[in-house]
Each structure stands twice: as structure tokens, then as C-alpha cells.
Amino acid sequence: MNIAAALKELQAARIETLAGEAPAAFAYGADATFRAPETLLVVIPATEDELIAAVRILVKHRIPMTPRGSGTGTTGGALPEKTALLFTGRLTACRIDAGDLIAEVEPGVLTGDLKRAAEQQGLLYPPDPASHEYATIGGNIATNAGGPASLKYGTTRDHLRKVRLIDGTGEVRELGAAVHKFSTGYFLPGMICGSEGTFGVVTRAWLKLVPCPPFSSFIEIVAPTPDDFSGIRLLAPAAMEYLDIRAGELVTGSRQSYLLVRLEAFTEAELAEQERRFTGRLTAAGRFFRIGRDKKEIWAVRELLSPLSYQLGERKTAQDIVLPFSRIPEFLQWAEILRKRLPAGMELFVFGHLGDGNLHVNLLCGDDLAVEAKLIQREIIVQTRQLGGLISGEHGIGRERREALGLFIDEPTRELMRGIKKLFDPYDLMNPGKVL
Ligand SMILES: Cc1cc2nc3c(=O)[nH]c(=O)nc-3n(C[C@H](O)[C@H](O)[C@H](O)COP(=O)(O)OP(=O)(O)OC[C@H]3O[C@@H](n4cnc5c(N)ncnc54)[C@H](O)[C@@H]3O)c2cc1C
Questions:
Q1: Is residue 61 part of a domain?
Q2: What is the pLDDT of residue 301?
Q3: Mutate-to-test residue for ligand 1 from 35, 72, 140, 360, highest number of ligand atoms within 8 A of CB
Q4: Are 65 and 143 found together in one domain?
Q5: Smallest Cα–Cα separation from 352: which of 289, 302, 387, 278?
Q6: Quick check: 311 pLDDT over 80?
Q7: CA distances from residue 141 to 63, 107, 115, 164 in whole angstroms, order as listed
Q8: What CATH number has the domain bearing residue 374?
Q9: Do 189 and 176 touch, CB atoms closer than 8 A?
């Protein structure tokens, strides 16, 4: 590894850089885990060509690198650990092809900007992580980001049709095709999605768009029962989000659990028919609910939740478990019992994408309870495993969950994964120390 030589070549190529010890390098390297980054140098390319040239220079000098979008990842995936940081935030070209229903984007495009560009043409880019106003498409692809809309439309992986990736040998690979179906050999974009920067750096992506349903309606159900979970899911809502009593209290002030449901339709009549079906079921079940078409009134509380949660304690640790749908009531019951035996000063709250079994289980406490929080997180992970679930539905493994991965993926399969990584990254330069 020869950092000085790499820096000289990057500067000769007029690619912006920052020394790892520069104060601003800390800001580039910090992410949502709030851990201290260890950055060798920061590379800030202004174009896709510069990004490719920079990766080639780093590969040539065998300098390990960590790609980074906005640093909103919750598992430390973008945290440089004695690596060069590749900041993609300046690569923001975005082109909507309304004829082919495809968006061609650079990795630094914010998810919210892509969604707005699609909407201007009556189209929808469905993935909607709560962080969509800050997170980048590169980060979304690398983590296979989801959000409430995943219930109806799937996650980022279901929309990534083609990707341009520079791998750990400096080779630029075009994988997949900008079409909506693919059965022409192995579909490799599906594997790049969720690889958390460990195979290479995404320099461009082609994403599937869908027609945007113009009508929507929102239902808030107070104190939903397990029967409501399954009954409502069978009515096929567009999104179905859960807030446990503490999460509910946080955003509404009332210590109640809530189920929030979104309906979508292409016509007024279709929406009215859906509303009738849902309210009919809820009325028959004697449920207390309200329904409205103003997104701000009912749905906004869901979007407030993640940011608000940070106010409950200095230290937030979270799991984003995914369970078989039928095991959710069992998990929630177990979490209620867990809440009652938490030490004073520690808060537990559970919320998330109940419709697809993906729950965010959050612990908040002061730094003095760090050890206890770690032990309780371990219990949550073990309980998830016992119920047939997985450790991440959408946030990924990064560095924080590496240790637990072995509980969910057996050694032969992890060995297979290591072998695949080696094909893309034989020198282990691409985000080393993450995922596996
Ligand atoms: C308040 C809050 C709410 C959130 N809500 C959700 C949610 O609802 N759903 C959800 O899925 N996630 C959610 N997240 C997590 C996070 O926003 C997502 O994981 C997001 O996809 C990360 O995007 P980013 O640009 O911040 O990526 P970063 O954090 O910068 O990076 C994340 C990972 O992607 C890799 N990466 C970044 N760019 C590239 C690239 N060009 N090529 C290869 N690898 C790359 C990094 O190396 C790292 O491993 C939330 C986070 C916060 C803080």
C-alpha cells in the first residue's frame, strides 16, 4: 500500500482529495452509527469517469476503499476502517425514460430526488426508505433498501435491472440489462444489490419504474390484534406499518399500539371500493380506527418516528429483523415481556414494516448501560432465530452485525459467499471487514 504515490496520481488526474487526518475527513467518514472513522484519505470524484479513474489508482496501489453515499446506513457499512473513502455525493445525473419505464441514475442521486423526477412524468420509483430525503441510490442498492412500499412493490433489488460496477481489479462490468424481464443467464444485479460495497463500486444504475397510482387513502387502527394483522394483509393494502405502545406514545402522546395502512388506486371509484372493504372489516371487528385521504394527518407520524427515536437516549442500537408473518404476534408478545424487565433508564420500542414481517427493534439508553444493551440485543437476535427469522430485512450487515451473521447463515454458505466476493475482489480491497 503506497498512499503517498496514490495521492500524487489522484492529484495529477485532478481528482479532489482530502488527507485522512484533515478535520473535514471526519465529517465525510462519520455515519449513523456515530463511530469514529479511520480514514486513510477521502476521494471526491466529480464525474463517473473520475470515480472509475480513482478506483483504478487505488487498486493499482492496493489501497482498500469504502464507497460512501450519505452515511445514513445504520450498520457501519460506510464506515472507513483504515480505508480510503470514496464519496459519491457529487454524481447526481438522473434521466427518466418514460417510454421504457427506466431511470438511469448515478450513485449519488438522492432517493427522494429520483422519486420526484419520476413523479413529474406520472411514474413511480417505489422504494421509500424513511431516509429517502438523505440517502443515495448507491447506498440503497448496496443495502437493498426497502421501506413501507416494499409490501406491494418489493425492495430496491426488485427494481435494479442493470448496474455498472467497477470491481476490485479495476474492471468495469455492465451487469443485467435495461429491460423489465431477464432470463438470459445469471441475473447478477440481484447479487450486487445487498453486497454493501464489498464487490465493487456502483458507478451507474438502471432502475425499473411503474405507473404512479394517483389516489391514496390512509387508515389508522388503534390497538390492532393479531387477527387484524392477518385479516388486513389479506385485503392487499399498499403498505402496512406497525407502532408498538412506546412508539405510538412517542409520536401521538397516547400509549397505544397502532397499525397504519395505505391504500392506492388508479381511479376514485377503485379507491372508494377498497376503502369500503377495509372499513367494513374493521367495523365488523369492532375496531377503533380513522380513515382519511390527507397523508399528513395519518401517515406523517410514521415518517417522524425514526428521527424522533434518537431523543430517547444517547445510545441507540437497533435490529431490523424479518420474521415469517405468522410469528409476528409471538415476537411482539415476547418483546412486551422483555420491556417489563429492562433496567431503569433503558427504553425498548418496536415499529416497522409489519406487512412484510420486517420489524425495527430499538433499544435506547445512556452510555452507562452499554453492556446491558448489548446483552439484550443478543437476546433479541436469539429470539429472532428461534422464530425462524433473519437478522436484517433491509439495513444490511455492515460491521455491526457481522458477529451475528453466523447464527443465520451456515459456514458452507458463508464460504460460498467469500468465494463469490473473491471473483470480484481478489485482493480484498472493496470495503474489507464488512458483511462476512
Ligand atoms: C432515520 C433513518 C431512517 C432509515 N430508514 C430506512 C428504511 O426505512 N429502510 C431502509 O432500507 N433503510 C433505512 N435506513 C438506513 C439507510 O438510510 C439505508 O441503508 C440507505 O440505503 C443508505 O444510503 P446512504 O446513501 O446513506 O449509504 P451509506 O450509509 O453511505 O452506505 C451504505 C452502504 O452502501 C455502500 N455504498 C454506498 N454507495 C455505494 C456505491 N456507489 N457502490 C457500492 N457501495 C456503496 C457503503 O459502502 C455501505 O456499505 C434509515 C436510516 C436512518 C438514519
A1: yes
A2: 79
A3: 72
A4: no
A5: 302
A6: no
A7: 23, 9, 15, 12
A8: 3.30.70.2740
A9: yes
